[in-house]
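User: quick one, fold this
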Amino acid sequence: MRTDNVRNRKEQLKKQEKKDFDSSKDEETSTSDEEESSGGNRSKIAGKENHNLVHHNNKNKINNQNSNNNINNNNIKENGIVDPSANNADNLKATDPPSAKYKKLAIRSVMGAFMIGFFTMVLSTDHFIVALFVIALQLLVFKEMIALRYIEAKEKKIPHFRTLNWFFLFTSFFFFYAKPILITLANYYPDIFQHFVRYHLWHSFSLYCIGFVLFILTLRKGVYRYQFSQLTWTLMILMMVVVQSNFLISNIYQGLIWFILPVSIIVCNDIFAYFNGFFLGKKFINRPLMKISPNKTWEGFIGATGWTLLFAYYFCGFLLKYDWIVCPKGNTGFMESLHCTRDPVFLEKEFIFPPEITSIAFKYLGITLLPFTYIPIQFHALVLALFGSLIAPFGGFFASGIKRAYKVKDFDTIFPGHGGVTDRTDCQFIMGLFIHVYYHTFIKTLEIDPTFIWQNIMMLSMEEKIVIYEKLKQSIEFTTGTITP
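Assistant:
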């Protein structure tokens, strides 16, 4: 009886081993087929015992690695521990020598100085060139963001799907930026471009409909979810980059100061946050500022805020010396010098304390409060600096979250020590939108913009322009007293 049980047990073990071997062989064949389709080659393992041994060793190794990773992830999540070998702003590891830290600092500083110099050169040209520069940055950011989710194996099955993404970008550019260019061209070639000026909105909508229909036509079985997720990703990029940058370009034509000052505030805050974190990070507050971006420190955040406030106040005063920075573009030609009657926000004012406050201060504190002069824009600059230090960095945290989600250090490597264009402009887009809202809400004094009126006149037909001309001529002659109504 016992012998029969042993015999049955051996037969069951043999059947089980054969079953395990067949299943593992099927897995190996499936994996080998997938690798052959992608160009890879794998040598076959001969022999049942060798295969089982390798299979179980690999399985144990993977289980041990997963177990260790889970333990490390739990420690990081529960205790706020930052893995010293993880990617950070400088790509430093705990095993790197101290000299590597300063070498990367030098590379980052030199590249930063080069970028600031190039940016200054662009600003010294014309408003139109600066606007083209911003559009070029949008193209690079769009390219980096789209490439982040690119899966070649899936997109090979989708005809012209990558082209469709760029078509949506072109449609957005046409809607936001084409109209001023078409108006300018219509002044020289009215027979050709007058139609496009008048029906610009219709053409923009038509382009959108073409893109929408083409997307539906490119849907392919097996990749539906991937296609819709890519479309959602594309629309999100257009909203976060192109829409916000449209307001940024609008700021340029209101006066370069509304572009230079906020951009410089973000650059200043980024520089001082880096250097304060580099030399003082975690020496007073030993915990990261944000878990999603563990390389950011409280010392860098607080120190950068103070330095940015000082920078904004005095740098704004420096920019006021130049008319070509303060004056709006208006209808002046390309590269023409700008001169204008300055807005009151740029002019000195005298502040006189109310009599009640001066009497109380003198009676109880023995202090005489004297009048003082100030320039309103410098106090507005402090508000911009606070936003650039407290709110705009969350644009960087948003970008950090994207990089964590897709397990990349930087969006690109175009700038050594800095990453890609997206890494350097992640805070600028929301800052540009804030400037547009703040300017039109609290600063702008003119209710009617002559440039906007002129653009609308240029959209009219020749007969309508003649009617307006005659009415305007009569109004001017009546106002100057040359005729009687």
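User: anything notable?
Assistant: Strands lie at 288-290, 293-297, 349-351, 372-374.
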